[in-house]
Design goal:
2 copies of one chain form a homodimer. Chain A is built from 11 helices and 10 strands. By secondary structure, the first copy, chain A, is an alpha/beta fold. In chain A, β1, α1 and β2 form a beta-alpha-beta unit.
Amino acid sequence: MSDARPIGVFDSGVGGLTVASALAARLPAETLLYLGDTARLPYGTKSAATVERYTQANVDFLERRGVKAVVVACNTASALALGRLRSALPVWGVIEAGAAEAAARSRGRVGVLGTEATVRSDAYGRALRRLRADLEVESLACPLFVPLVEEGWLDDPVTEAVARRYVTPLLESGVDTLLLGCTHYPLLAPLLARLAGDGVALVDAATAVAEQVAGELERRGLAARTKAGTDHFCVTDASERVERIAREFLARPVALELVDVGGAPEGA
Amino acid sequence: MSDARPIGVFDSGVGGLTVASALAARLPAETLLYLGDTARLPYGTKSAATVERYTQANVDFLERRGVKAVVVACNTASALALGRLRSALPVWGVIEAGAAEAAARSRGRVGVLGTEATVRSDAYGRALRRLRADLEVESLACPLFVPLVEEGWLDDPVTEAVARRYVTPLLESGVDTLLLGCTHYPLLAPLLARLAGDGVALVDAATAVAEQVAGELERRGLAARTKAGTDHFCVTDASERVERIAREFLARPVALELVDVGGAPEGA
């Protein structure tokens, strides 16, 4: 049995391409359909009701396009909208997957790195404590990481100086696991691993959700055996900037299809 | 004659507090009423129609609160919404004022620093060329400046390294005037002036619009002679983060009133 239908991946922007990359690396036989809701980003500053509505419209769009399952790569949507989502498909979010891997690996003290919105929501903290009540969790907003990644300054002395300033207090407080709780951060993983050293486990939610999806597709008989299609990338607003960042995240040029997911436009 | 009514200042967020500070410094007898539309920021990623609608609602709110004139501190709103605004009050934007001062001071080559949205709109470039067709204009997006300022890393080696990387190619291309085309950038002015050196004029739109407002109030008989009221600060969404940044921008603690400007909510 082989289910050739694509896996849908949705994010508010192009950051979720790190999740698509992790899925492609872990599941080379699967075809991906990516949707970046670039017209309405960022989600992190919007109300829960608005994020729920946008998430539902995006999942409905992927469902109409014939996906067999959906991965919600957006941290805000994972935190706020997964509970109330109406869908006949399996839907997985990055937060539960990232938290589960960190909880499994930590010796007791986890540092969570994320955007200000994610840290303020404490979504990873709550997920981690649900899984292991004994865990100590320290969360830190790193607002410079996303623009540094989007500038393409990955292996860079400026980025290293910024990362050192953010992460040093966490490391000094005895964190044994660093959870990268933002779609952009996997591109900083080599630098962060070097700063953290061997004694600290680095967990990224993108790799964690790819691992979870691999197991779940197998368990539900939904896995593909050979790659039948071509990965396809949709955005709700295209610009030179989005194309540049997409190229950088996927490490290759990519065609972006401009789509209308339906539902109420922003501010209408 | 003294007109004690406040001057309204509006921005999509708290960045426009640099404009409020410049007005307070230039016009110590005037009272200010500030409105930061923090619930709906950022404006830079939104359509012209949406920015127009938000700007109208914000100006209407300030008018209902009894201001005698409005300064639009938001670059996006200045660029997209001033033309179609309906208001009985005098309304001034940062772009025309900043461009006018840069055009008056430049010996021929202006570098414009701004956010990606402002640079993409080319609003300063068009305003500069309208004023002086002979000007050469080179615009550069500096996406790390806003988060660096919001982190409070103003006089900082990381910020200096970032600024040097951004500005060096502009300086090497022979720019004689640097126009700071973003509300946040005046906080980086000391650092940028040091990097640019004596031969380069630094023009910031906040100071420029304050100078313009001073002249226009005088000309129209609207100036206040002695300060009659207390400056007042309103936001459409309050958070610890907004309060922290407001405190940093004004260099003092400040009470923020949460207000509803009316009009359609985002995404409704």
